[in-house]
Amino acid sequence: TAPGPCSYTTLRDEAVKLFNSLQQLESERDPVPLMQGVLQTCLDLPPLVDEIYCQLVKQTTEPPVPGGQGDLHYWQLLTCMSCTFRPSPPVLRFLRFHLDRTENRFPASEMAKYACFIREALEKTKGRECVPSLEEILVLMQRQEMICTVHCPGAPACSVAISSHTTAEEVAQELVSRLGLSQSPNLFALYEQSRRREQPVGSATLLADVLTRFE
Fold first, then answer.
1. 146-214: same fold as 11-141?
2. How confident is the model at residue 93 (pLDDT cuts 50, 70, 90)?
3. Which of 28, 92, 97, 138 is least enclosed, having the fewest CB within 10 Å?
4. What sections of 127-206 are H helices per DSSP?
5. Where is the MyTH4 domain (predicted)?
6. How far apart are CA 39 and CA 140, in angstroms?
């Protein structure tokens, strides 16, 4: 296997490192940085995406303490994976079977709630340019939406609830409606501004990716 990008070694070695990270995740007091590291490796090395999905299904099948902290850490990472990567069709079928089985065995449990959230996310996920930010991971762990603040010229800043799948065009349309500009002949777009540059955000760009770049 050829070495991966950055400081990665072989896919086999990286798969072993990821497996060790998953083992560590179970007892980690602050799992967020570790989760983001796993997601970043999968983004940089796409062949490992299916591997991690399969490992997470394995870890959440017959856990020693169903619904315990360690078990929920795996479900939370699986939630973040589902909002970032779409697995191959065979793994997707395997994953959906696992989600159905979990909901049937543990109805109304936290695991079942994560399973439902993951199933819905997989219907929308197409792929990300960036892994979720630390803030987004925290929000996904609670199965909630993020609040994005948009500064509008000549109007107060607007807070908009967004998910991992919300596009710039969807936010722009909501703001146009809120500001009563639906009948305006002008075109509206979001801009990403930092100390070094200001540039328009593509209509199909995911706002979650923009927030990760800011982080």
1. no
2. very high
3. 97
4. 134-141, 168-178
5. 1-141
6. 13
Write phi, then psi, for 178 (nearest 5 degrees). -65, -40
The residues, ordered by sequence, that sit 6+ positions from 104 with a Cβ below 8 Å of its Cβ are none
d(CA 48, CA 44): 9
25 within 8 A of 60, measured Cβ to Cβ? no
Question: Is there a contact between 203 and 168 (Cβ–Cβ < 8 Å)?
Answer: yes
Domain layout of the chain by residue ranges: 11-141, 146-214
The string of DSSP letters for 81-112 reads HHTT-PPPHHHHHHHHHHHHHHHHHSTTSHHH
CATH number of the structural domain 11-141: 1.25.40.530
CB 106 within 8 Å of CB 67: yes
Instruction: Indicate if the alpha-carbon torsion angle 46, 130, 15, 113 is positive or negative.
Output: negative
8-state DSSP, 51:
H
What are the angstrom distances between the C-alpha of 69 and each of 107, 110, 134, 149, 214?
18, 11, 19, 32, 30
Residues ≥6 apart with Cβ < 8 Å to 118? 78, 79, 82, 95, 99
Domain with residues 146-214, CATH architecture: Roll (3.10)
Task: Report residue 178's pLDDT band, with 50, 70 and 90 as the boundaries.
Answer: confident
pLDDT tens by residue, 110-125: 999 999 999 999 999 9
